[in-house]
Amino acid sequence: MVEAGRRLYARAYVASNDGNISARLDDKRLLTTPKSVSKGFMTPDMMVVVDYDGKKLTGDRDASSELPMHLEIYRNRPDVNAVVHAHPPIATGFAVAGIPLTRAVLAEVVTTLGSIPIAEYGTPSTAELPEAVRKYIKAHDGMLLANHGAVTCCRTVMTAYYKMETIEHFAKISLVARLLGREHLFSRDEVEKLQGLRGMYGIAAPAPLCADPADIGSADQILCQVLEAPESPQRLVPDVGSALQQASRDGEIRLTYGELTALIADAVKNLRE
Ligand SMILES: [Zn+2]
């Protein structure tokens, strides 16, 4: 936990005393990082032992005020032994913009995390935040927290930390691709092949992909992952915004044949829905 905290701070995934990490010790006790301490400069003696109701058992310091979010994750995920929460700036930018990281564009992300949704905003340190996380945690090992940051969980502290690295790296690449004006998405078939690799790498999938993304609707707790991956391969997702900017400059929109057919396909799909 000291090392994971050091890396969170070194990579600027947290500022000041932000962020928190916890890990199961046994079925009665958890170890968690202290509040009001920079996660880059923790020592093992600063850690706090709490029970699964959040009551402090041992430690000179107090546990983070975000502990209830961690407890909610452990309650819903018996397979999980560690939770990492941070505010990595690019992923948090997506969380502020309300843009989830749910497009199938990077093989390692599809294999390790799948879809990264945004949990609705909840006031930090209140019951709202655990409640928001509860909706998605059964089906996701990592999620953005609206207007706040991100949270990940896994079997060990370091693997939960690595999922946080993957989310921020994915957010950075997504930002660059969107600045460049387009993203090529994996087809549904490619995604299934990638998900099949999980077994080979020993990566447990928290949940299958939703057969029909419309099904999850307003479910109280989501039990499958929504990943944007079109049926047909090599579909483009053209950036309509840049085409329109172009239009305002010289009065015409230029689209490739692929972009035009993708736009029409999207329009038809939207009409059907
Ligand atoms: Zn936070």
Structure description:
The structure is a single chain. With about 270 residues, the protein is of the alpha+beta class. The chain has nine helices and ten strands. It has helices at about 1-10, 65-75, 90-95, 105-110, 130-135, 155-180, 190-200, 240-250, 255-270; strands at about 20-25, 30, 50, 55-60, 80-85, 120, 140-145, 150-155, 180-185, 235-240. The radius of gyration is 20 Å and the shape is elongated. It starts with a helix and ends with a helix. It binds zinc ion. Zinc ion binds next to loops.
Helicity range: 25-40%
Mean pLDDT: 89
* Dominant shape: elongated
Radius of gyration: 20 Å
User: Which molecules are bound in this entry?
Assistant: zinc ion
Counting copies of identical and different chains, the oligomeric state is single chain
The SSE order reads: HEEEEHEHHEHEEHEHEHH
H/I helix tally: 9
> Kindly, what is the distance between the CA atoms of the first and last residues, rounded to a whole number of angstroms?
47 Å
Strand order of the largest sheet: 4-3-2-1-5-8-7-6
Largest sheet: 8 strands, mixed
- The portion of residues forming beta strands comes to 5-15%
In the predicted model, the low-confidence regions spanning at least 5 consecutive residues are none
**Total number of beta strands:** 10
Quick structural gist:
The protein has 273 residues and is an alpha+beta fold.
Task: Name some characteristics of this structure.
273 residues, alpha+beta, 8-stranded mixed sheet, 14% strand, binds zinc ion
